[in-house]
Amino acid sequence: MKHHVTTTINGDETEFLCDTEQTLLDCLRDELELTGTKEGCGSGDCGACSVLLDGRLVCSCLVLGVEVGGKKIDTIEGMATGDKLHPLQRKFLEHAALQCGICTPGVLVAAKSLLEKNPNPTETEVRYWLAGNLCRCTGYDKIIRAVMDAAAEMRGA
Amino acid sequence: MRYESPDTLEAAAKLLASESGEARILAGGTDLLVQIRSEVLSPALVVDIKKVAETRTIKEEAGGFRIGAAVTGAELKEHSALKKVWPGLVEAANLIGSTQVQGRASLGGNLCNGSPAADSVPAMIAAGAVASIVGPNGRRDLKVEDIMLAPRKLALQKGEIIASFLLPKRAPHSGDAYLRFIPRTEMDIAVVGCGVSLTLDGSGTCAAARVSLGAVAARPLLVEDAAKALIGSKIDDAALEKMAAAARAACKPIDDKRGTIEFRTDVAGVLAKRTALIALERARKG
């Protein structure tokens, strides 16, 4: 039996059909073609599939699609405003905070969530917050610098 | 796999009890979904309990706090009144996994997943938490230390659901703490975990204490001899050494690549001392 799920994704009311076994990640990618959210491990270890569920940072691979009826989901696709990149996205480009890019959407979603709660984090706070977002390319320093720089710019703006 | 999300615990218990195949409760899903995906579990029925208000609410009750079994670690951390009274428990819940995992993982799930290394369980045991359990035959209370029997084995009957936990009223000059040893700095599973809760009298003598150890036996332990070593003392070095010896004596750990029997046993004593000192400092301020 397929479940009919009605939810709000990046501000738009969205409906999809899913099987019970499908995770929110499967639904985003395979049913809604929102492929910005990536699958890394599928077991909640890597953070590549990070989204906000009712404003809370979660791994979409650890949520069933059928659970999100009536809830609000924010994905990487909602981060830029039209052609205008979010300051975090711009700073990631400026600092070359990505190489292969698979972890990047998850890192950006997680970092945005941090800055909404804490606009002035210490480097330690950024590193702990992002400990669940694994990156095998950058060695993290560039990511951390980009987040700190974006936070500074956003505080000034 | 069938998914149900009833509005009441009674309906949830009925669904679980009447399922002839394997049935599982879904709270945060951070363990369950991983086990389903890796085919460790193939439940015929998953019952999501998050639509039941009791499972998702923190409220003050009888001078203490009632915490819904599906309340997340992140929500515990944002509850300033709870964090002020039970900082050790809140910190323990927020050592589980990453920020993302803490956005979903719950106290009920951490306990019912049935791992001896679960971080929040020694903290709950030290706190004297009591689970409120709803099943096909009604509601009953069970102390948290009596719930997990062995890895993946719980003292719950078919159809029973942990709805919430009651943390008791706190006496003045009380403090709790939880520490774990992991070989990394974050995102790891406890090699040893220790929860301590204690209360001082007006003269600074330890009037009550509870000490719990995780990951050093087949189930999280309430170590009464360790608590006895503290009670009646000023929690000086001699009392702490006695407590550490009692903690080590209670250990029956496994021997694996993450920690040998000897290492886990030794660390249990060291951690118990460090944890008690943090609880002591908090009790003096409280």
What does this protein structure show overall?
The complex is a heterodimer of chains A (157) and B (286). With 157 residues, chain A is an alpha+beta fold. Chain A is built from five helices and five strands; from the N terminus they run ββαβββαααα. Chain A has a five-stranded mixed β-sheet with strand order 2-1-5-3-4, sandwiched between helices. Chain A starts with a strand and ends with a helix. Chain B is 35% helix and 25% strand. In chain B, the strands form four sheets. In chain B, strands 4-5-10-6-7 form a five-stranded antiparallel β-sheet. Chain B has a four-stranded antiparallel β-sheet with strand order 11-12-13-14, with helices on both faces. The longest helix of chain B has 25 residues, at 261-285. Chain A binds chain B through residues 3, 20-21, 23, 42-45, 47, 50, 53, 56-59, 61-64, 66-67, 110, 113-114, 128-133, and chain B through 1-3, 5, 26, 28-30, 33-34, 36-38, 46, 48, 50, 72, 74, 97-101, 103-104, 186-187.
Q: How would you name the oligomeric state of the polypeptide chains in this document?
A: heterodimer
Strand order, largest beta sheet of chain A: 2-1-5-3-4
Q: Most extensive chain contact? A: A-B, 30 and 27 residues
Query: How does the major sheet of chain B shape up?
Result: 5 strands, antiparallel
**Largest sheet report of chain A:** 5 strands, mixed
Order of helices and strands of chain A: EEHEEEHHHH
Helices of chain B, by number, come to 11
Total number of domains of chain A: 2
The CATH topology of the largest domain in chain B, please? Uridine Diphospho-n-acetylenolpyruvylglucosamine Reductase, domain 3
H-E string of chain B: EHEHEEEHHHHHHEEEEEEEEEHHH
In which order are the strands of the major sheet of chain B placed?
4-5-10-6-7
- The CATH topology label of the largest domain in chain A is Ubiquitin-like (UB roll)
**What's the CATH C level of the largest domain in chain B?**
Alpha Beta
Distance from first to last alpha carbon of chain A:
50 Å
Please report the number of helical segments of chain A: 5
Proportion of beta-strand residues of chain B = 25-35%
Q: What's the number of extended β-strand segments of chain B? A: 14
Cα gyration radius of chain A (Å): 15 Å
Strand content of chain A: 15-25%
